[in-house]
Specification:
The protein contains twelve helices and four strands. It is mainly α. A two-stranded antiparallel sheet has the order 1-2.
């Protein structure tokens, strides 16, 4: 178990994924890669046949080099791009309900997943993840060498209620409901400032901490003012309405139009 304090000064706890869960996820991913390779094999055999017939003896060397390079690119590229596109997960990790996150609870950036997966080659030495397994067992946060260099953690991922999150915050409608001034004034300035900070940095958080921070901020506002999201309104839309109506000119109003738009 590890505790992380977010930029909003809210503490989150994660259960670290152990060597067993990570190994099981890895074997599942290797199985999936094997299926993909088998589908590509027929195409490669045909292509190599043409290469051999065209270049004779030299074609065999070229074919072997292309096969080795392609296998390495598929192996490393599988983890790099899927972890990036699936926000820290691969199909194997998703089935085992684990996820890679940046230390501090942030979502992975492309450079993070690139760095941690390029070092798989070193982690695999001298045989079958010898370096990586040793690092997992000896480090406090169960990190292999790639995790240590990239600053990442592998944690168990609890289900996220995605309806409470918005990928983009749309502009408010003209008919936005005005919140009671008396209740707005009861919200501490610190809570409004935290909500504003959260809205500016929310895209940098992984899904679970993003959801938990938003829920805690909404609960703080409810306890101090009695205000809460109306039926069908996401938590982030509610927080944005609070900040927008409590601060006529929020700090991000001078930023790009896409970032300045807030929900109703």
């Amino acid at each position: 178990m590890i505790s992380i304090r977010t930029p909003e000064n809210i503490e989150l706890s994660y259960a670290l994924a152990g060597a067993g869960s990570r190994a099981a996820a890895y074997f599942l991913d290797v199985l999936i890669m094997s299926v993909v390779c088998q589908m590509l094999l027929n195409v490669l055999v045909y292509a190599f046949g043409l290469l051999l017939s065209a270049f004779g003896a030299d074609g065999a060397a070229w074919a072997a080099a292309i096969l080795a390079l392609g296998s390495f690119a598929l192996y490393i590229g599988y983890f790099i791009f899927l972890e990036w596109l699936m926000n820290g997960q691969t199909p194997g990790k998703r089935l085992l309900q684990i996820r890679v996150i940046k230390q501090g609870g942030y979502a992975l950036r492309f450079f993070d997943t690139l760095l941690r997966n390029l070092l798989r080659v070193v982690d695999f030495l001298p045989l079958f993840y010898g370096v990586g397994l040793t690092s997992l067992l000896l480090t406090r946060d169960s990190q292999r060498l790639g995790d240590l260099v990239a600053g990442t953690l592998v944690v168990y991922q609890e289900p996220v209620q995605t309806e409470s999150l918005l990928p983009d915050l749309p502009a408010p409608e003209e008919s936005e409901r005005l919140l009671p001034a008396a209740q707005l004034s009861a919200i501490p300035d610190e809570a409004i400032a935290l909500a504003g900070q959260y809205l500016r940095s929310r895209v940098e958080l992984a899904p679970r901490p993003r959801q938990e921070v938003a829920a805690e901020l909404a609960e703080l506002i409810r306890e101090t003012s009695g205000l809460e999201p109306r039926p069908g309104q996401s938590i982030e839309s509610f927080l944005a309405a609070i900040v927008r109506q409590a601060e006529p000119a929020p700090p991000w109003s001078a930023r790009t139009s896409a970032e300045a738009e807030l929900p109703s």
